[in-house]
């Protein structure tokens, strides 16, 4: 074993495979064990997960990866991982995110404003038998109602890097396949069954439970950013109880927001104070100019709130903060950070297969989304600690090229060694040479996870 450890050290030093090195730093074997990923026989589960990470980075489907990789596993190995009902995919994402954030803390500036961002996105799914998909889902991308999967997610951002912490699929009354009609019959004690029941709770409850889990795990953020759909009195009351300061857009709806005092509605408060308050001017980008002022109000459930009224040429946009001492400008600037999660969704779709899952079974869909989010987090971390950070897209292309190059180079190197081993003088001089070649081949397979055809 001494020679194997030395060979591993040399290969790690020379090949510098950033993905494998990051997974080693995360101590993925331990995380997988704690997340109930275990196999008594067959291929080691951490190697199957590693293959999926490579697939996503190299933008390969399972079938394509198998065709192009000499060391890929059988198709059933990959599909068994996706369909297993006992694996705790949420815990895998949570524990790996916590580890990444602990590593990131070493390079973070303490002055950075760290935020949690709650949002949801609708991913188009046209198949009528896709479990978890619903009709009549509003898509901001398509600007219409579509059939798809509604994914509620929680993101962490420090202004430089984004990481996906948690997600859930929310189903409505227009579900294409009812839970009781799902293909797999599973034990009610399994993690998969809990994920099924969660989908019926409604987006608000799903979101609250998601944030509670993040807080309980020890993740710290200065503010929670949400859009107007989630920003309701009961939601803010719950966040106050958790000790989280909220900055969010407010929906101008009298049935949702009704304040104490003479002027109870948002319109009433705006019209009262727009003549009394000093109005300041601002600009968003090059084209959007706005004026704004703020006032402090009180709500029976949500407590005291500071509202910044932003008036553009066409819209009145109220932004609320539970932190009353922030300046208007700070509230506006921090809320702009909610765009970070939209950028994250964009990168996930373009580079990590999010929304392109070809899985009809609910458990496999959960697994694939988790693997997309996990791989996105790993690449985001690699980008952050590299000496010359790049856009995710640029780093993504570099990693893809690097993996191909490493795999092909090692394949050629081993082929050369095989030919050298056939030379009689070499074999006579060192009878351990062929054993070393076999050991190199085995170690390389572990470190790279695969060898890809040129």
How would you describe this protein?
The protein has 454 residues and is of the alpha+beta class. The chain has a domain at 396-448. The chain is 47% helix and 17% strand. It has 17 helices and 10 strands. It has helices at 2-15, 18-26, 28-34, 45-57, 62-68, 75-83, 89-104, 191-198, 203-217, 233-242, 266-273, 328-336, 339-351, 362-385, 392-421, 424-429, 433-448; strands at residues 115-124, 134-139, 144-157, 162-170, 223-226, 246-249, 280-284, 288-299, 303-311, 316-321. Strands 1, 2, 3, 4, 5, 6, 7, 8, 9 and 10 form a 10-stranded mixed sheet that branches. Helix 10 links the parallel strand 5 and strand 6. Helix 3 packs antiparallel against helix 7 (89-104). The longest helix is centred in the C-terminal third of the chain and has 30 residues, at 392-421. It is globular and about 90 Å long. The mean pLDDT is 84. InterPro entries: IS701-like_DDE_dom, RNaseH-like_sf. This is Transposase, IS4 family (ISPepr1 group). It comes from Malaciobacter pacificus.
What percent strand? 15-25%
Rounded to the nearest angstrom, the distance between the terminal CA atoms is 32 Å
Question: What is the structural class?
Answer: alpha+beta
- For this structure, the quaternary state is single chain
Unreliable runs, pLDDT <50, ≥5 residues? Answer: none
Count of DSSP strands: 10
Question: What tags apply to this protein structure?
Answer:
ten-stranded mixed sheet; 10 strands; alpha+beta; 454 residues; 47% helix; 17 helices
How are the SSEs ordered, and which strands pair?
Layout: H1 2-15, H2 18-26, H3 28-34, H4 45-57, H5 62-68, H6 75-83, H7 89-104, E1 115-124, E2 134-139, E3 144-157, E4 162-170, H8 191-198, H9 203-217, E5 223-226, H10 233-242, E6 246-249, H11 266-273, E7 280-284, E8 288-299, E9 303-311, E10 316-321, H12 328-336, H13 339-351, H14 362-385, H15 392-421, H16 424-429, H17 433-448
Parallel strand pairs: 1-5, 5-6
Antiparallel strand pairs: 1-3, 2-3, 3-4, 6-10, 7-8, 8-9, 9-10
Helix pairs in contact: 1-17, 2-14, 3-7, 4-14, 6-14, 7-14, 9-10, 15-17
């Amino acid at each position: 074993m001494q020679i194997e450890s030395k060979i591993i050290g040399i290969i790690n030093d020379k090949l510098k495979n950033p993905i494998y090195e990051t997974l080693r730093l995360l101590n993925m074997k331990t995380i997988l064990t704690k997340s109930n990923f275990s196999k008594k026989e067959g291929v080691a589960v951490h190697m199957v997960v590693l293959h999926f990470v490579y697939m996503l980075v190299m933008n390969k489907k399972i079938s394509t990866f198998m065709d192009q990789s000499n060391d890929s596993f059988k198709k059933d190995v990959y599909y068994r991982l996706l369909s297993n009902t006992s694996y705790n995919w949420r815990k895998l994402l949570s524990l790996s995110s916590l580890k990444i954030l602990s590593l990131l803390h070493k390079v973070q500036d303490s002055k950075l404003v760290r935020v949690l961002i709650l949002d949801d996105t609708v991913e188009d799914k046209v198949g009528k038998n896709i479990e978890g998909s619903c009709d009549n889902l509003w898509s901001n991308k398509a600007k219409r109602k579509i059939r798809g999967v509604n994914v509620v997610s929680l993101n962490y951002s420090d202004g430089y890097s984004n990481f996906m912490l948690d997600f859930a699929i929310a189903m409505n009354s227009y579900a294409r396949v009812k839970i009781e009609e799902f293909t797999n019959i599973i034990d009610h004690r399994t993690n998969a069954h809990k994920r099924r029941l969660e989908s019926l709770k409604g987006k608000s409850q799903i979101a609250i439970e998601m944030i509670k889990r993040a807080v309980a795990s020890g993740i710290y953020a200065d503010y929670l950013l949400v859009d107007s759909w989630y920003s309701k009195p009961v939601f803010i009351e719950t966040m106050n109880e958790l000790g989280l300061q909220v900055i969010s857009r407010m929906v101008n709806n009298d049935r949702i927001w009704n304040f104490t005092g003479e002027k109870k509605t948002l319109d009433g408060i705006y019209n009262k104070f727009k003549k009394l308050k000093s109005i300041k001017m601002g600009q968003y980008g090059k084209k959007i100019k706005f004026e704004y002022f703020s006032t402090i109000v009180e709500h029976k459930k949500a407590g005291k709130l500071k509202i910044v009224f932003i008036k553009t040429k066409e819209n009145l946009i109220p932004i609320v903060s539970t932190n009353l001492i922030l300046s208007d400008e700070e509230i506006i600037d921090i809320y702009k950070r909610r765009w970070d999660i939209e950028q994250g969704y964009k990168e996930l779709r373009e580079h990590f297969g999010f929304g392109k899952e070809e899985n009809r079974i609910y458990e496999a869909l959960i697994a694939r989304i988790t693997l997309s989010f996990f791989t996105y987090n790993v690449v985001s971390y690699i980008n952050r600690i590299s000496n010359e950070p790049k856009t995710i897209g640029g780093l993504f292309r570099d990693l893809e090229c690097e993996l191909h190059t490493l795999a092909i180079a090692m394949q050629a190197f081993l082929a050369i060694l095989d030919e050298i081993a056939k030379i009689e003088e070499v074999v006579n001089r060192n009878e351990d040479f062929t054993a070393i070649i076999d050991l190199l081949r085995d170690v390389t397979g572990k470190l790279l996870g695969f060898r890809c055809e040129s």
